[in-house]
Predict the structure.
Amino acid sequence: MVETQSIFPIVSELPEQHQPPVCHQRSYLINGEIKTWKGDVKSVQSPVYTSENGKLAPVNLGHFPLLDEAEAEKALAAAEQAYNKGQGEWATMKVKDRLSCMETFIEKMKVQREAVVRMLMWEIGKTESDSAKEFDRTVEYIQDTIDAVKDMNRKAAKLELEQGVYAQIRRGPIGVVFCMGPYNYPLNETFATLIPALIMGNSTILKPAKYGVLLLEPLLKAFKESFPAGVVNIIYGKGSLLGNYLLGTGRIHVLAFIGSTRVANVLKKQHPKPNRLRTVFGLEAKNPAIVMNDCDIDATAKECMLGALSYNGQRCTALKIIWVHEDIAAEFIQKLKQNIAASKVGMPWENPQITPLPEPDKPAYLQELVNDATSKGAELIIPHGKDDEASMVYPKLLVGVNSEMKVYHEEQFGPVVPIATFSSLQEPIDYLTNSPYGQQASLFSDNHETIANLIDPLVNQVCRLNINSQCQRGPDVYPFNGRKDSAEGTLSVSDALRQFSIRTLVAAKNTSTNKRIISSIYQERSSNFMSTDFIL
């Protein structure tokens, strides 16, 4: 028997810049104070294993605090005190002053770029280039949000007159916002809810995802020094414990959660006053590609490979099933196989296409999907021709997938690509219309009539149709949302600001007394809300 060399490195042979970071974290942020936890902790193991004497073991990156309900209550009390039923310093602060705090945070955040990027690589197995991109994109997102608030503020800096009633209309905060982000974009998508919630004047509690936790530790001090006490509270621990407690109090006003429908529903049901809870959810998706027989096969195969396997397919916007017209199925599958076989598999610092998976149970789940599909007639193709090793799962194609198989329905969230063939266009259309998910779809054809015939039946099934390109979130100024079980609310730059705020107006009848009062308020600049000042 020929012994094969492990794809995982010998850690002692790694150069200094690629040595794993270690963070034995006990710190957390409540009420403007970085506290030290003396209780239980949770160890963090990297998806990157190391090979020593022929044996594999995951790298231990440290640990984080497992806070209890008492600390969650302290965070909630701090957020409530900071908001003070809408009378708090942050909620009533001039918009330009809140923006100044946010700009201070950006500068302090940039200093921690290297530490955050390095931890992203090791905690969730994201490539070095993609980790850097996530950090830089997050900074850009914050700046874009600041610019959007300025624009919103300029448009609201006016007095309207309708039917004898003067009114100034602005957007105001809602209250205490509880943010829970996802592990696959633990910085960017977490901040995509936290930042707009903050900037609109809410107080916040943030609990990081199950994986991708330690990367926030370098930013605790930046949050502490940039915002008033209690405005940002960052806690760590089990989501089922802390989340259920916080929602169960009925004192959370907005729940921002990116994850599974199952967990979202559990959290939502904890709230005793659901009519007073606003929810902003990013949930599952089963985005299909529909590949027509008049497409550019070479370009389509390449785009589908990127769409299905970027960051190992661990994106809600990944292509989760590919429908191919039977006339070109054989050629397309061969091209797709070749593209995948040419992709690089390796460690995050090597910037490959495929990296180790951060969820310990994911390899077994993916194998379960493969076994189920092949037992029901699907053909298995492994383009790299290699067996999986620990957390490293090589891309797999499942050809001939049908509705009897789990992978036809379930979001795999990993490097398994189901392929279904069709002769009638109604087949993929029916798939989408019957699906419980409705985020995006990709359409591939070089014929405008073909595309037009697909657009009209599908625009009411998903929220974004991508023509001859993979599904994706960006640009961030475009709406990012979903139908059915895929989302609640919209998370573009400007839409997110609306999700975490409510339209509020001051109105007065057109009388001489009221005109005098309003004019005096404007001239003396005695109200932060009623103001015609522009933020440039």
